[in-house]
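To illustrate the input format used throughout this study, we show a single complete record. The first block contains the structure-token representation of the backbone; no residue identities are included at this stage. The design step must infer an amino acid for every position from geometry alone.
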């Protein structure tokens, strides 16, 4: 009886196991039967033509104004007024801020008094009989020195008003009312050769100094002349030349502006563990282009132009074991033709031989392939059936 029971139990396990396998096979078969059909390759017919093709180099960089100025006080004092804020438009010569003028006004008054005294002394020497030529020249020199001192004092008083050295937009105000300034600054206009922003809130660095200089000044940028500061790798450096045309596209926009390569650096910039790159500046040539300092952008520089080139889309060419072929559309149907390819231009390739202008070929259309995973009922999954 025990042997009979074991045999029946063994047969039952076999039956259950076979049943589980059959259920799994049936579910998989049902999925294959009901799944969407595999997408068929769709083609379009392309007519082979001769066109003008360009060699290009792609760059990435940051947009900056072509000119900027860190306007800083030339005289010491306490700031009493600031008349501008970030994003204000200013004209060259507009007042930006003021320092207290009491000491500077006193210096003007003292210099004026000294000049009056020097002139009186010169008159005295002139009226004195027997005065030597040396005494007369000394008195004249004192007058000239007093005149220079008065002019300097008046200039310093004028410098108590900080004015904009260029027309543009306020990018950063590094002063507050009540600040003490040392009076060692300047307001020279310079090219924006390094990172600069203010309208976008990015950390500001002046082109000729450090961020500390920018923090202790009022930064004015020109918003009617822009440039792209980019970089190029060693492989593309020989093909980039000053004067080449470029198209610049700010990141996140569909706007494209035109530019021209201005400078190409010959000294590499290399960070630790990074490939060496060379600085390239591209000046924007579109007047009135609305751009923002500190924003990133891509550029495509045209480095060469080739006319009368026979080309086809790269997607139309199949290369295997060094042999390139295309599918030509003829009156007799589609025929596979062997071709010799040459230069590559973006998404197209030159056909050296094997096709002629006017020939028609098949080009696969781009398709997005979507797949649907098999759906097994929770109560009848293969793994569940096999373990029951």
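Output of the design step:
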């Amino acid at each position: 009886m025990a042997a009979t029971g074991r045999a029946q139990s063994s047969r039952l396990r076999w039956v259950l196991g076979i049943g589980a396998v059959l259920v799994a096979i049936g579910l998989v078969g049902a999925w294959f039967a009901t799944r969407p059909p595999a997408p068929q390759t769709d083609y379009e017919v392309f007519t082979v033509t001769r066109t003008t093709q360009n060699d290009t180099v792609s760059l990435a960089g940051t947009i900056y104004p072509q000119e900027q100025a860190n306007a800083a006080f030339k005289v010491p004092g306490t700031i009493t007024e600031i008349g501008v804020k970030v994003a204000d438009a200013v004209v060259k010569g507009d007042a930006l801020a003021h320092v207290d003028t009491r000491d500077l006004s006193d210096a003007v008054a003292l210099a004026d008094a000294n000049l009056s005294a020097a002139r009186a002394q010169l008159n005295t020497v002139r009226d004195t009989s027997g005065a030597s030529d040396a005494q007369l020249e000394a008195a004249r020199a004192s007058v000239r020195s007093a005149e220079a001192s008065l002019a300097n004092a008046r200039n310093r008083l004028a410098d108590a008003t900080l004015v904009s050295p260029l027309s543009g937009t306020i990018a950063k105000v590094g002063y507050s009312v009540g600040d003490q300034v040392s009076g060692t600054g300047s307001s020279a206009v310079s090219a924006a050769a390094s990172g600069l922003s203010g309208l976008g809130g990015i950390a500001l660095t002046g082109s000729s100094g450090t961020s500390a200089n920018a923090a202790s000044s009022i930064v004015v940028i020109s918003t009617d002349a822009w440039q792209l500061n980019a970089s190029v790798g060693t492989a593309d450096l020989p093909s980039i030349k000053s004067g080449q045309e470029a198209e610049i596209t700010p990141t996140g926009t569909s706007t494209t502006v035109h530019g021209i390569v201005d400078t190409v650096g010959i000294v590499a910039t290399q960070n630790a563990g990074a490939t060496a790159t060379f600085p390239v500046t591209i000046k924007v040539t579109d007047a009135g282009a609305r751009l923002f300092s500190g924003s990133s952008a891509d550029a495509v520089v045209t480095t060469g132009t080739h006319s009368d080139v026979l080309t086809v889309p790269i997607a139309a060419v199949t290369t295997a074991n060094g042999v390139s072929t295309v599918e030509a559309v003829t009156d007799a149907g589609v025929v596979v033709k062997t071709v010799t390819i040459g230069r590559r231009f973006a998404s197209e390739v030159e056909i050296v031989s094997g096709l002629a202008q006017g020939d028609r070929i098949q080009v696969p259309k781009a398709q997005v392939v979507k797949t649907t995973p098999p759906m097994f009922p929770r109560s009848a999954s293969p793994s569940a059936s096999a373990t029951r």
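Structural context for interpreting the output: The first strand starts at residue 43 and ends at 47. Residues 193-213, 367-388 have pLDDT under 50 and may be disordered.
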